[in-house]
Structures are given as structure tokens and as C-alpha cells.
Amino acid sequence: MAEIxxxxxxxxxxxFTIFTPMVKFGYRTKVIGKENFPRRGGAILASNHIGALDxxxxxxxxxxxxxxxxxxxxxxxxxxxxxxIVAWFLKAVGQVPMDRSGGRASADALGSINSVLxxxxxxxxxxxxxxxxxxxxxxxxxxxxxxxxxxxxPVIPVGVVGTKSSKGPFGIPWVHRPVVIVGEPxxxxxxxxxxxxxxxxxxxxxxxxxxxxxxxxxxxxxxxxTRVKHGDLKEVGSDEFxxxxxxxxxxxxDVPAVDG
Length: 260
Hints:
By secondary structure, the protein is of the alpha/beta class. The chain contains seven helices and 13 strands.
């Protein structure tokens, strides 16, 4: 799918007239560590994911525009009026389609994300790949690390607490006093490479998840959340996979040489 990049007018309009006032004064969101958010330059915001409203609370609380890759099918608007509205909104606020079908489509999606980072903007990723089924922090997927290393950008670890929603006025999803914590940026520039090793990708991913864990205090389960939500662990949970932290130890010694 071709990338659609529109001026940021609509993003700013919706953020400052609707979403930020609702998140700040309606939800009464507390933001800690906003001074850690870099004021310029491309970066990847990596966050835990515990509630459906995370993708609203986080960007509304940040001082810069945040781009969340969204499922490609949401951009087509071919399922009636509601889907057309969603597609228009995503395009209007400058989000990018993420096609996970593999092959050329997925490569084009990554190209769109790389373009956002090259333009000095911030892309937000949930390394766990899906919402936590029980509030624990789960094993991260390494796609985020690949983006970090191939684009040579810092990671901004963000932790969210209390974003599990309930029905509010008029049935609108609502959260009560959530907390968003911004950690100090993580610098992996010493390992930047267009062809990172599997060990390096895992190390960067685990270090990022550990930084998030230090912000939230969550228990860590060393298994993918999808297995607990939909797979073989759906009935038994993740107790046997609990560890003090993701990964640990120094960076792999056999990392590729830094490009350039």
C-alpha cells in the first residue's frame, strides 16, 4: 500500500482540541518524566500495552507528534461508512499502514516507518506485539530492535499504569487517573547496523523491555503474550515463565561492525 503523508494540521487540531483536554482533564492523567522526551530528531517510543486506550493516552500526553503504525486494512475504508471514517481519520492525522502479510507489502510498510524516522519524527511501538492479557510484561518481538538499529535512532522507554478502561459517560471508554512515565532515552548507536545479528536484536529488545519494567514495576513473563491470549497457555497462564527481568548481561560479543 502506498504511503499517504498529509500535513500535520489535522493531527494538531484533534490533539489539542479534543484528545489532550480529555486525557488531561477528563482522565486526569499524570505524566512523569516528560523532560526525558527528546525535543527533536527521529526516535522510537517503546511502551508496555495494558489497555485499549494506550494509543490515545500516550500520544495525547507527549510533547511531539507520535506516529503509531496501524493495521493496513484499517486504511482501506471498504467496510461501510464507519470504516471510511476510520480510514480518513488515520490518514488525516498522519498515521502509517502496517502490512503484516509478508513479502513486498511488509517491506513497503517498513519503508513508510523508516521515512517517518528519517524525517526526524517519532514512531511508537508496542514491543510485546499485543495487549497484556493479565497486566504482566511479556517477551518482546524483535522488529522494534531492527528498526532502531537500521535507522540509528534512540529508544524512548515509556510505561503506562492504570489504563484499563471501563464504560464512562454515554458509554464512552474511560480510564481514571492513569499514569504515563517517560524514561531516559536508550542509546544503541554503538550497535547501529543494517544487518543486525539475531543475538543483538534480542539483546536490544530485552534491554528496552527491562527499561519499561523499571518504570512500571510489572512482573515479567518470558513468553509471548499471544500464547497466553490465544494459544496453548490460554488456560494455564504464564506463571511458569516468570523471571526477575528480561534478558540480562552485556551485549553480544559477536555483533556486526558499525556501519560507516
